[in-house]
Queue: 4 jobs
Job 1
Amino acid sequence: MAREVSPPSVDVPKVDIPGIADVTPEMIIQTETEIEELVKFDEQTLILGIETSCDETGVAILRGGDQVLANIISSSADLHSKYGGVVPEDASRAHVQAMNPAIAEALRKADVTLWDMSAIAVTVGPGLVGSLIVGVAAAKALASVLEVPLLGINHLEAHIYANFLEHPDFAPPCIGLIVSGGHTLLVHMPAHGLYEVLGETLDDAAGEAFDKIARYLGIGYPGGPAIDQMALGGSKRAIKFPRAMMKKGYDFSFSGLKTSVRDYIRKQEEAGNEINLADVCASFQEAVVEVQVHKTIKAAQEYNVTNVFVSGGVAANSRLRELMGAFCEENDLRLFYPSPVYCTDNAAMVACCGHYRFQRGIRADPNIEPDPNLHLA
Amino acid sequence: MLVLGIETSTPASSVTIGSEQGIIGSCMVTRGVSHGSFILPAVEFLMKEADLSYRNLSAVAVGLGPGLYTGLRVGVATAKTLAQALSVPIIGVSSLDLLAFDVRYSDKLICPVIDAKRKEVFFGFYRQVPGGIARESSYVVGSPERLLAEMEGSKDDFLLVGNGALLYRERLDGAHKVEFGSMANAFPRAASLVELALPRLYREDYDRLFDLEPLYMRRSDAEINWEKKAK
Ligand SMILES: [Zn+2]
């Protein structure tokens, strides 16, 4: 391998990217053929992605936008499990220790050297600031030594781009859900780099609601997989929990639902009835999933798009996939979702988002700062 | 052998490039720009001015604190990743050592004091020895009153140095024969870091890159609360 450091051969305009809201229409490749040509041109592009927005230290190496040569995820979730939620200080300390072994492991797995990289992509927000600073510091150090562009990536945008890793036919315009422990958003993506947030949660994120209910029921952390598993043995029609804001716009709310689960448990305990946890989980999950599916389908129809995606940790929920799949089929919509490994926080999706941005000639300011409250649009 | 030093454990960000022949260049600011925005542009500036490149570096040295976590983490993560990318050794040095080293020409008991926020300070005790300093205590995090009590229980004269000493000057002045270091020595400097790292580089006394971590001195709040609840 050549160990020479040289600036990128293609001279591209430098654009500051504090957030994707600043992307102008000229930066967006509009036609399919244009994209195809660029993809061919960029087949050898190697992007190293870094993700540290929460408790996962992720380092990935991506070739040509869709070949994941390495996707290392080192999680500190075990540290947080006894507290039933992520402890920011612990997560941050874990990132400092996990970052460099993860970089080494990614390079070893991908069988490339740092000097082969075309660019470094890193999550700059939203997320925990103490976590974000570690990834951004490492990414800046790499970009400075290697003299390659530094691409600042919005974590939410990266979740959407996780779909591009595995589905060659996935493309905007599309509408979809980003649902995870930290986020619940319904997003319209008319073109690469353009986003419109149609709805958000007014209180907890979907994954957070799962965590809280799982903790309340005492069935483990993280709550999403625990409830999903438990629900398999229960009846989703057993208990009638409310469908919050089913008819109202595109926003979500989980506080009312959480309260009614607690009320239900309390009443049953007071009455001395035995509680069927499987039924509670199945019915709770159904209430969450039904609202999400309903609003997504409604938005797809209103915006007249046929591509629908579900991204983020909660996208691994089996009932969400099942119901969304059924409704998409019924309404002639195409549903895309990433494999479970690309649903949870990972750096391959960050590298993928970086790849498309690199293609469009967008470069981050090398002095980009983490922004814990970064918005999608 | 060229060493890059990065020290960010206090409000000051400080970077230095130097070798056994001397300090080639230093940059330091104590407010305004964040540590993360300062370090690499400062390093690049120094290299450009001194006509050097990353490939000339033989080692990276980094201040490990104790200090303020955000800056500390940015400095340590940056230093570790630079060392990894350049395949050069990394050497970590306590930031209290750096402060004490700067005022080593005194036969008093030297006590570097770094403001730890939350009304506490980090400190330790050092004594001048031929060619440097020797630490005579463990690193401590505690209230200024605790430091005062430790000094009152001793027959020594003291030289207090660092931003914590200046911040709590009035409260710490009660002890007998206490002298205070100057403003110019309020923050640990990367120049001392390079100077202290060089002999270790010669001895091949490096730190293990993957194991090196900041001196946090405090457990995380969640851990502390958890133990309180468990009792
Ligand atoms: Zn996420």
Note: The first strand of chain B starts at residue 2 and ends at 7.
Job 2
Amino acid sequence: MYEFILPNAWLIPALPFLAFALIGLFLHRWPKVSAGLSIFAIAAAFILSLPIAAAVFAEEGGAVFEFSTRWLSMPGLNIDMGLLLDPLTAVMLIVVTSIASLVQIYSLGYMKGDPGIASYYSYQSLFAASMLGLVVANNFGQMFVFWELVGICSYFLIGFWFGKESAKNAAIKAFVTNRVGDFGFLLGILFLQIIFGTLNFAGLSQEMAGYTNMAVLIPVAVLLFFGPMGKSAQFPLHVWLPDAMEGPTPVSALIHAATMVAAGVYLVARAFFIFSSVPQAMTFIAVIGGITAIFAATIAITQNDIKRILAYSTLSQLGYMMMAMGVGAMTAGMFHLMTHAFFKSLLFLGAGSVIVAMHEEQDIWKMGNLYKKMPITTWTFVIGALSLCGIPPLAGFWSKDEILLAAYASGNTGLYVLGALVAFLTAFYMFRLIFVAFFGSNTYGQEKAHENSGVMTIPLIILAIAAVFAGFVNSPLMHHAFGHFVNNPAGIQPEPSTAIMISSTLIALAGIILAWVIYQKKLISHEALRDKYSVIYNLLKNKYYVDELYARLGDIFVFGAARAMFWFDIHVVNGLVNGIAFLTGKSGDVLRYTEDGQVQSYALYMVAGIMILVVVATIAAVSVIV
Amino acid sequence: MDISLLLTEIMVALLGLLVLVLGLALPARGKTVVNRFALLGMIAILAYSITAFSQKASFFNGVYQIDMFGSYFKLLFLSAGILVMLMAGKYISRFEEKSSEFYGLMILATLGMMLMSSAGEFITLYVGLELMTISFYILTAYLQNDKLSAEAGLKYLILGAVSSAILLFGISLVYAMTGTTMFTEIAAAFTMQPALLAGVVLIIAGFAFKISVVPFHMWTPDIYQGAPIPITTYLSVGSKAAGFAALVRVFMVAINGADASFDWSMLLAILAALTIIIGNLIALSQKDVKRLLAYSSIAQAGYILVGVVAANSFGLKGVLFYAMIYVFANTGAFAVATAVEVDTGKTGIEAFAGLSKRSPMLAAIMTICMLSLAGIPPMAGFAGKFYLFAGAVQNGYLWLAVIGLIMSMVSVYYYLGVSKAMYIGENENDSPVLTTGGSTVALWICVLATILLGVYPGPLSELAGYAIQILM
């Protein structure tokens, strides 16, 4: 069994890709067949992932399998296509295939009646294929290819309803912002190739062992981190993710919460050997992560759109993971990636269920009392929120606790305080959402609301189970099994601390209680608060005006440069280009007349050609002989 | 001497003769069966030749060489022949009772190509070349009621005869000065003398005619335009590859490196540069897709010649690699042109207008093949040009690679001109262009190979690497 499946793990990305190709080429006229094929492919990929994970985890500390084939070779450059199957890959495979399967099933209900179902599923399949290709890559070159592919799928899916102006703009914004990050990433990869002569992860790890030239390594590591900053929406490249919520909600759940945005974190984990050897880069990562976490959490408390609250929450949690990576806790970061994938996709799918029930209403203030009409959605949503807030013994508790612990143990007290504050804010904004939307007194639109069908609620239930139990794999109850497999010698895995556990739980509870006091019991009027601190409120409500700042900078620099170049293009380049094009075209026209259709002249040209050749050769030969 | 090693050649010869005889013997209704038989026979031989790829033997004291270099080209000729037969089914059916001879002659032409790629001395090479060329004379003039076809056949015959004379004259001069026609012995007896020099120049000119290198290219557009399209296709991918196979073997074994004091590659470099420049420039002003593809094929021959100039492992690998992918890209383009010609009776660019609305798949395939010919990644043409130009740069011919790159850019204009017509042009006729089952299969094989070999060139380039080991 293992002998077959391990070298053939390429089937895992290949199956969804095949589904994409078949749907795109042949099946797009039959939406139901397309959806079925897509779901079948991703489910098959999930089933194939199981024995791989079993094989990897069968060995103490985790087995590592690498298979590779030469893709392109020339002197000085070899690019391979390969599979790297280790605990890190196995975790990602399981997370991606399981959530993608559930999301695709859920989409059957969510996208019902949409005219573009076939293309939706073809993009979903292409995304799954690209994401899985990224996960199994054994070198940076291959990873970059799939990195770009997931980006383009994200672009397609954000702009899926391209008739909507806002969706179109959001797709372009996501794409352009990611280009900025990817440019740095590509430069970093090129530097690695130039300096070390290989892009293979294991090979690089060996080559770098004795390399200590920090003047080179610092810029390379920072450039590499540009990629994760774009893809995982870290400050200051975070602006695209909230707007990406214009896409269908299952897309937000899968791509913009659970998997693609986590690819940046995965990359940092995969290249941990590079980053951990450059302390300055680690500090950079930790600080960027910390800033993103607090920055997004503060914005989230003022948002009213259910999906945007979750989007800022995702930003904030991604910042958490990066912060964990930055302080050296690779295990904690990956662990949180995994649990977050489950509970955040649950929350998004729950939000999608509400949006369907409320007929495309996304403003939480226009919802209320949904728990009566939509019990399954409500209670699974609450479970997801409790997990996100870190209430024991749910999954989020174990992973968040480890991040706080790592921040504390690494001696970065500032980051620990920041993390604790984020935990408090997280609990607050999540339960603000829940008390207003699910338990609020507003009855507007309630008569329309209804619980959704099984294809939507069953994935919610399955994810809720995962959101409860997924944390145990790295808890003392299971002897920190996750950490035994997913770790790095350069990383830290501090001993659990009861004090941190208790304090972080209390902080989360405090946030929930405060939300309850304000939004449920209404002991404090939130309107009064808003009016009293209107400066802060407006700053947060407008997302610190980052978008406006970028728009101004873009207008000055990008469009300014564009105008200058436009002038140059019209007045200088055009003349040159048109002149050359004219000459080229004309010379073709003239030469055309050598072809006069006469056999005699053809033969004449041939003989003349031979004579010239003989003369040339003779001159050359004489010069050699003499 | 183990005759079984010649099985591929023997089977092709038998198949060709059998198809000719059966075609004559059977009544008109039996022709389709014979035609099917010819196609299946070719496929079976291709399958056999794959298993025989790594065989190695020398016959009649080196007159005929079985090696991987020859095997590679045999795969190429057989694949090209099969693709052409697949795409030509409907086109050929118009010949009715003469259709079996058409297949028979094609198979014999294939045999000629095989002999050329495996010949170890000049007379054998010449016999193979004539077998191929004479078959093509007939096939070119096959459209009996078509003035252009008859004209093309006659022109090809006259100019082909001239080029054969030139080649033979060159061979005789070389024989006079070295006393042998064997490649390996010529290399040993090579000394720099004026007559030998002239002989080699004449031999190069003879091959240059076959691969349509400027200034020996003049026949190409007229014959490509006049000949039945399947034959144009086979001329451009098969006959040309055979010319390259022979040129590479003669050049590497007999001429180059024999006398290190004289570097023949400069002569070829000048020819390659001229070919690339003139082929591309004249293609710019063509209004007929067949003529456009003819000039494009001249330019493509120039690119391949760059690899021969490089004469290192990189460049020669490029020659073999490019010749193979050229089969797929060019056959794909010609197959679409065939479908359009069968449908509209025309091959002007205006006949392709609006094709994307009539048959989106055909338009997409044409575009992909054109992009490959232009050398745009991720199509196979990019990988091929990369090997060719990288080889030239390695051998110090940076200027030649630069010319190749610049003219590749120029070529994008006329290749995409066809795409522009297909996607932007309007056509009042919006019924789909019909393709037969066979040509659909051929189109899919071409487009898949063009994409796959572009995305994953590794295996084919490794195969080409094995094939050229014998020459290094």
Note: The interface with chain B takes residues 69-75, 81, 584-585, 587-589, 591-592, 594-595, 597, 599, 601-603, 605-606, 608-610, 613-614, 616-618, 620-621, 624-625 of chain A (CB under 8 Å).
Job 3
Amino acid sequence: MKDIMKSLGNVLIKMPQGFFVTLKHLFRKPVTLDYPRQKKPMAPRYRGRHYLERYDDGTERCVCCGLCAAACPADAIYMEPEETEKGERKARVYEINLLRCIFCGFCEEACPEEAIFLGQDYEFSSDNRDSFIWTKPDMLVPHPRKDNPFKRIYRRVRKVYGVPDKTR
Amino acid sequence: MAREEKTITMNMGPQHPSTHGVLRVVVELDGETVVRAEPVIGYLHTGIEKTMESKLYYKALPCTDRMDYLAPMSNNLGYCLAVEKLMDIEVPEKVKWARVCLAELTRLNSHLVWLGTHAIDLGAMSMLLYAFRERELIIDIYEACGGQRMMTSYIRIGGLAHDLPADFDKKVRNLIKLIREKINDYEALLTNNEIFINRTRNVAVISAEDAIAHSLTGPMLRGSGVNYDVRKAQPYSGYENFDFTVPLGKKGDAYDRYLIRLEEMRQSLNIAEQALDGMPEGPYRAHVPGVVLPPKEDVLYKMESMIFHFKIITEGFKAPKGSIYQAIESPKGELGFYMTGDGTNRPRRVRVRPPSYINLAALPKLSEGRMFSDVVCAIGSTDIVLGEVDR
């Protein structure tokens, strides 16, 4: 008898309280986004697609030291070096297999030249497997830097790792 | 014509929505009563333990994210503590407090997903939506810290990947305030809900003796009234400095475990708040040349740091010979890492003690003699993640 009374109390008094919680939400703003039209800004440290950085004069920062390839837990990075006319070392081939990449950000952390970094973009699906092997033209930020959208993410590595901007 | 066979055998899963992944349960039924229920695993086997043996110590870290993907920070923490124990590294105070705060947020994250999925298994739809709405805020904090929403890799050997973000304190305090209110909503929806009580009271019961015999840990064990929590029994990462209680159940049924997890969420909020209040200033990485990666600033401006940076990334560090075991209290139970170093830069053996896997082994005990629909409740209240079960 006591159990029945308790159950009845639950059904008549406690459960309507639960219904009220749901009812409240009828008058609230939705928390969802209308995704392809509305987009959520990603956090400054978000690890999206890779970019290869340039110096202000347009030369590539990457010196093909291979540290990112060594740090990559998924072995997604392949590179071959060459020498420029000035005798500087640079990458002739630089490939990232995005199908292997796990976006851990170890390459960005390893890079001693701040050359590679992971940007904010996350939409790069494709129906063609070959298009996931990214080469230098896919990743190098455009030059000149003026009036282009990459200006905002310039020197992301410094912002994320909190490195003060001394002359370098 | 007389029938000889009385029982029929049925397959539940591996694509069943209420098995939380790719778990297959072979259920032998007599009418609607379960005679035998046997979990079959291995559909999500990724060989993570073996992969870790072929990787440098610091490169094996992203593997741990992918085991219990609902509690990435706990796995990171367990692995890093194990390597730090093997290498005898002492981390700065700030790192310890930050790790505790993040580990408790992770517990909250995992319990929220559990609450939502368990409730939807038992027919309460809106609970899932509310739980995932709050989980989103925790994941936003992960994103602000480590840059990724699920596979964070934020806790690293010897410290953290980056310093905590500038608005970390404010964000977490807002979150704690919000979730404190929301837990009352969850209670209003479920705790006294007659349908929920009927589905969980006296269902999936396990006694204290059986729970110990099955080496259950976490809320599964505490639901039966056994007071064992790794945070209290073998404090790690400075948990001895925190003031919290370990909730215990009486009957060991699914409803007790539900109450315990809700109370654990409240305790987690308290611990996270204490961690924020007491967070000391200091470096975010230990200074151990040759083992812990130096901060980015030093790499760019100091020659020795640059050399160590190159050496660690290309060669890793050599661990001494010997074996260690390090356990932490992950949201699901005792998550242990057993590691053997052999003097080279790769571990000889990494063995993970996954709480989901060992708790799942009690499923036959939980569901035998019950109705078929109670198997769903038993799986739900065990709180398994198949990524961790199969590894």
Note: The first strand of chain A starts at residue 50 and ends at 52.
Job 4
Amino acid sequence: MRTGIMLLLLGLVAASLAMGSIGCGAATGTLQFYANGEDFVRQGFESKDGWDIDFDHIYVTLAEVKGYHTDPAYDAHEDGATINGKVTAALAGTHTVDLAAGGADADPILVGEVTDAKVAQYNAISWKMINATSGDANGYSLVIIGTATKGEDNVDFTIKVETEYAYYGGEFVGDVRLGVLEEGEAAELEMTFHFDHIFGDAETEADDELNTGAPGFQPFADLAVDEVLNINMAQIAADMDETAYGLLLDMLPTLGHVGEGHCHCEEI
Amino acid sequence: MGRRWLVLCSLSLFLALMLPVTAYAHGADIEYTISSDVEITATYDTGTPMDGGQVTIYAPNDPANPWQTGTCDAEGKYSFTPDPEIPGVWDVQVRLAGHGDIVHIDVAGGSSNGGSYSALQIVLMSVCMAWGFAGTALYFMRKRSAK
């Protein structure tokens, strides 16, 4: 009888240990973080006020990039800056990437990856857009470099943003599902940037919320000298039309998306 | 008598563990309740219906692959019937012209995929469960032999 009880107890202990190892979530995979300026950035587009814009470089500096599994699912509109992740994968370091890198059909930019991320469905993400401390974007969180053309007019522009933002997004909304990480496999999360929110889009109705809320490019063109514009936010605040500047301040926090899903954003 | 009781108990336990929850004897009423339609209404922020919005539905047991796809009607509505044998959180995404959102609908109180078991863990669990059952069986067999 004693042997039977011992066997029974050993079985229960072993089962408990097995359940414990499950709780520890030993299974891992690789979680990759991408940044995507979409075709607007890679292929250029016409602003709401008729400027054809091509981008040479768009530098964003990303830090504290994290992916989360949340349950219940994080909602950017309701949960704000609070993401209660049951599982979290954090990308180490600060990364300056060029969203315009590659050709017109280039893939989104790989920012970095976490090779030992726990197996989970990563359905939320957060990141900070902070000022770079070196390189081409030194001193700025966002640098937009390109050329705008409208009829006979031409502007070579460099727009530099020194304001820093923290973005919090839920699940990626797009044509494929991202973030489902299986053991030994790789899964992706994406930080998507919508630059049509700043310049508007001629292919969208003029009275669409996207265009009525965007400053467009003309307020920037008005500040160019000899077809050149090199300006930062402090100078924009001083020189730009007040209404357009107000729209720009409203739109910069809306740059960050998860595919087509909106993010919660806070100025740092 | 004791052996018959043990066999009956074991069979009952086996049936309780292995049979699906669906009870055919309780028939249509329960099934209809479980499989009632879910209707969504997709609108833009302005309240305008997403006429023609592309709907993608993911079932709880396969979060990576669409379970069903479809299109919203002129009022932005779309209906579907979740498989009652797949309880949990059903995710429904609607997209149109660069706008989109995803909602998470809890059908029969499940939770989303917060971590799956590795092959090693599944094997380990199976071995431990078998070990536990073997220990229980040996205990009863030893007790019967002692009589």
Note: Helices of chain B lie at 2-18, 27-34, 119-146.
